[in-house]
Specification:
Elements: H1 6-35, E1 40-43, E2 59-62, E3 69-73, E4 78-82, H2 87-95, E5 99-101, H3 112-117, H4 125-128, E6 135-141, E7 147-150, H5 157-162, E8 172-182, E9 186-194, H6 197-212, E10 218-226, E11 229-238, H7 253-259, E12 262-266, H8 267-271, H9 290-300, H10 303-315, H11 317-326, E13 330-340, H12 344-355, E14 360-365, E15 386-396, H13 403-414, E16 418-419, H14 429-435, H15 438-448, H16 457-461
C-alpha cells in the first residue's frame, strides 16, 4: 500500500521492468506471428469468460506478474494499478485508506483489465456506470509492439473509448488509473419486497433517479425470485452497526434477502456478498446443501474454486467425458442483458414464459459520463436507465444447440437491449457487425493492429477462436 515517495518509485520501476520484458517478448515473436498468420493470447491466472475457446496455436504472453497496486492517492481519490490485479487484492488495499473503486464487479477473481475490456457492472452502476467509465488512463500494448498511453484528452483517445467491449482484440491493458470513492466501515442494507413486476420496475426507476441526484454514494440492485416474489436492495454507508452478518459459510446471502427487511454488513462483506455462492450458482456444485456446506464450505465457498472446477471440466477430456455420462439433454444459458427500463417488464415476461430461469439478478445502470461515446457499445443511450438482467443456469431441452440463447439474442434486439459478450453468442456475422460497429472496429484495427496479431472480435466472441 503505497501513497508516495520511495515506495511508489520502487513500485513504478518494478512495473517498468516487467513492461519492458513483456514488450521484448512480444516484439521477438511479432514477425513470426505475422508471417504465419498466427495471433497472440494472454496467459493469465484467472478468467471470468464463459465461452470455452477452441484449441489454438496462439502465442501466449505471461502477464500474471502484472498484478500489483502501484499507487493509492486518497486525496485525489485515484489509484494506479497493474491491469491483471484482481479486485479482491485491490479492494483489500484501498479499504486500508477508507476508499473503494467506484465500481467493483461482483466476483473476487475479476481483474481490472478484464472488467475494462468487458463490461464490468455492480450495484453502484446506476450512479457510476460501467467499470470503463471510471477509468482515467490506460497503458496499452498495441499490435505493433508499442505501448501507448490512452486518455480521453490525448492523441490516443480513439483507442481509450474503443477499448471497452474489445476483449483483447485491439491491444492489452498493462497499467490502469482509476477513480475511487470514499468508503465507511459498514453498510446498512434495506430489502424492499414486491409481488407485482410492474410496481417493482417502477420503484427501481424512482429509486435510481432519486439517489443518482443525491450527494452521497449508495448502492442499488435486486433479485427476482419468482413472478410474485422480487426484491430491491438498497445499501448505504454507515459508521456504526448494531451487528454484522456473515455470508461466507453456513448462511447464504441471497436467501437472507427473502427473509429480512434490514441487515448490516462490513463494507468488505458487502462488496463480496455474491462471491461465496457465485450468486446462487454454488447449487451446481452441491454447496446449497447444509451438510456439504458445513463439511466443505471453508474450502469451496469462493468464486476462484468454482471457476477452477468449471475450467477443469470444460478443458479436460477425461473429466468432460465423465460429466457427460450423467448429463441429461440441456443447454447452458449464461447471460447478462442490458434492457432499457421501459422495456424491462416485456423482457421479464419473455424470460418467465420462454426461458424459465430463476433467480434473476437485477442491476440498474446509467452512463456516468453522459458526453462520452464508446464505439463498440453503440446501442447504449447515455440518457436511458438500463437494467442488467443476469441469469445463469442449465435449461433442460430437446431443442437444437443454442436454441434458448438465440431466442434471448433476438428478444434483446427487439427490445433495444445490449448483450455482454463474456459468454456464448450465436449471431451470424452480419447480425453481429450490425450491432457492434464493424466500421469503427476495422478503422481501429488498421491503426493499432494492422497485421491482425490480435484476434477479430467476431472470431473471438462468437466463433470462440
Amino acid at each position: 500500500m503505497i501513497q508516495s515517495g520511495e515506495g511508489w518509485q520502487a513500485n513504478r520501476q518494478d512495473y517498468e521492468d516487467k513492461k519492458d520484458a513483456l514488450v521484448r517478448e512480444f516484439q521477438e515473436n511479432l514477425q513470426n506471428i505475422s508471417r504465419n498468420k498466427g495471433s497472440f493470447a494472454l496467459n493469465k491466472s484467472t478468467s471470468n469468460l464463459f465461452r470455452n475457446r477452441k484449441s489454438s496455436q496462439s502465442k501466449k504472453l505471461d502477464v500474471k506478474r502484472l498484478n500489483r497496486v502501484l499507487l493509492i492517492d486518497p486525496r485525489s481519490l485515484t489509484a494506479e494499478v497493474e491491469a491483471m490485479i484482481t479486485y479482491e487484492k485491490l479492494v483489500d488495499e484501498t479499504l486500508a485508506y477508507h476508499c473503494l473503486p467506484a465500481v467493483v464487479p461482483q466476483l473476487k477473481t475479476i481483474t481490472v483489465g478484464g472488467a475494462l475490456v468487458g463490461l464490468g457492472i455492480e450495484s453502484s452502476s446506476f450512479r457510476y456506470g460501467l467499470v470503463h467509465e471510471t477509468i482515467l488512463e490506460i497503458e496499452i500494448l498495441t499490435g505493433e509492439g508499442n505501448v501507448v498511453v490512452c486518455r480521453p484528452d490525448n492523441e490516443h483517445r480513439d483507442l481509450f473509448y474503443a477499448f471497452p467491449n474489445s476483449y483483447g482484440t485491439l491491444g492489452y491493458a498493462l497499467k490502469v488509473k482509476l477513480q475511487l470513492i470514499p468508503a465507511k466501515q459498514f453498510l446498512r442494507l434495506t430489502h424492499l419486497h414486491f409481488s407485482d413486476p410492474i410496481l417493482y420496475f417502477d420503484k427501481l426507476r424512482e429509486l435510481c433517479a432519486e439517489r443518482r441526484s443525491s450527494s452521497y454514494d449508495s448502492y442499488i440492485d435486486g433479485v427476482i425470485f419468482s413472478e410474485h416474489e422480487m426484491a430491491v436492495t438498497l445499501g448505504e454507508f454507515t459508521d456504526e452497526a448494531p451487528y454484522t452478518s456473515d455470508y461466507t459459510y453456513m448462511d447464504v446471502y441471497y436467501r437472507s434477502i427473502q427473509k429480512k427487511k434490514t441487515d448490516f454488513l462490513s463494507t468488505y462483506a458487502y462488496i463480496w456478498r455474491w462471491d461465496a455462492d457465485w450468486f446462487w450458482c454454488s447449487k451446481h456444485f452441491g454447496m446449497n446443501h447444509w451438510l456439504l456446506r458445513f463439511v466443505f464450505g471453508k474450502f469451496m465457498l469462493h468464486s476462484a474454486v468454482y471457476w477452477k472446477i468449471k475450467h477443469l471440466v470444460g478443458t479436460n477430456r477425461v473429466f468432460n467425458r465423465i460429466v457427460s455420462l450423467f448429463e441429461k439433454p440441456s443447454e447452458t444459458v449464461i447471460q447478462d442483458i442490458l434492457i432499457p427500463i421501459e422495456n424491462a417488464p416485456a423482457f421479464y415476461d419473455f424470460l418467465r414464459r420462454s426461458i424459465r430461469i430463476v433467480p434473476i439478478w437485477i442491476c440498474p445502470f446509467q452512463f456516468y459520463r453522459t458526453d462520452a461515446r464508446f464505439p463498440l457499445c453503440p446501442r447504449l443511450d447515455p440518457s436511458v436507465l438500463y437494467l442488467d438482467f443476469g441469469f445463469w443456469d442449465i435449461v433442460p431441452t430437446d431443442k437444437p444447440k443454442g436454441y434458448f440463447n438465440q431466442l434471448i439474442e433476438k428478444k434483446t434486439q427487439e427490445l433495444k437491449g445490449f448483450k455482454s459478450l463474456y459468454s456464448d453468442s450465436f449471431y451470424s456475422e452480419e447480425e453481429f457487425w450490425s450491432i457492434y460497429s464493424k466500421s469503427a472496429f476495422s478503422n481501429l484495427k488498421q491503426k493499432y493492429d494492422p497485421e491482425s496479431v490480435f484476434k477479430d472480435l467476431y472470431a473471438k466472441c462468437v466463433r470462440r477462436m
